[in-house]
Amino acid sequence: MRRRRTRRSRVVVGALVLVTLALVVIALSTGDYPLSLAQLWRTVWGGGERVEEYVLFQVRAPRVAMAVAVGACLGVAGALLQALLRNPLASPDLLGVSGGSSVAAVFVLLVLGITGPVLAVAAFAGGLAVAILLLWAARRSGEGGFRLILAGIGISFLTVSITGYLMVRAQVELAASALVWMTGSLSATAWWHVAVIVLVGVLTLPAVLAAARWLPITQLGASAASGLGVRPETARLVTVVAAVLLTAVTCAFAGPISFIALCAPAIARPLHGHGAIAIGSSALVGATLLTAADLVAQFALPGYSLPVGVVTGALGAVFLLWILATSKGRQL
């Protein structure tokens, strides 16, 4: 049985890697200046013309790399929160982390009139502030998951109210730019944005690995987990901190892109055929979904590019309707 599961996991991961690579190649070669596979290969190895190098390395590659990095981070964050709360509908959107980043970024943009790196720092700080509130609200060990969900819903409503107030009182031009950021967009990506997200992901990796090892044990119950040497409070703290860091850094540079963290783990887990957390597969599914959504956002309407958050929002709505249609009365 273990060999069968291992073999299936390898096949799933390998297939997801191939799908992600195929979408990356399509995204790099498609656009107003199309690149054939031969041109793409030649340019990657330094043999392309100057215009091909500019289009590839300065325009398309940062955006594609950002889509992969952001999608992977959101997929991991969603998988961690869903495993922690034992709820397939849990996501950073539900817990208010994305809302906290939005409030901080919108305040800096509309009230202080500051953009650039300060906006990213503010969004990151807003997500961390929400994390502190969540951990304080869920400090009781016996009912941490239930309290965490309630606290997250309350914070989400509060952040929506604050953001709406700031938008109403702002000038029309500034409100329009803030609305684009709040929707989620990859259009203004620079290489240093990608580098920061990858760095935070690497620094968070030990916590993610620890959470992946502890969460299946904590699902056995507090007494059983303690008997096996895992403290549920520590596992909850490490999981929430890792998920919040990954979500906050993506919101800082790409805005609060919705539903990727919700959909990716729910798609990845059934592929393994057993009750796995599927963190690695969730990262790959998240990268695939966001890369595909960005392609749709760029080319679905000829001559007009949409923010990628519009496409992911539509994807999430369809996904939720599909869950309701296929659940057949089962408890979610």
Automatic annotation (TrEMBL):
It is a multi-pass membrane protein. It holds the Pfam family FecCD. It comes from Microbacterium wangchenii. It is found in: Cell membrane. It comes from the Bacteria. Keywords: Cell membrane, Membrane, Transmembrane, Transmembrane helix, Transport. The keyword Ribosomal protein does not apply. The keyword Transmembrane applies. This is Iron ABC transporter permease. InterPro entries: ABC_BtuC-like, ABC_transptr_permease_BtuC.
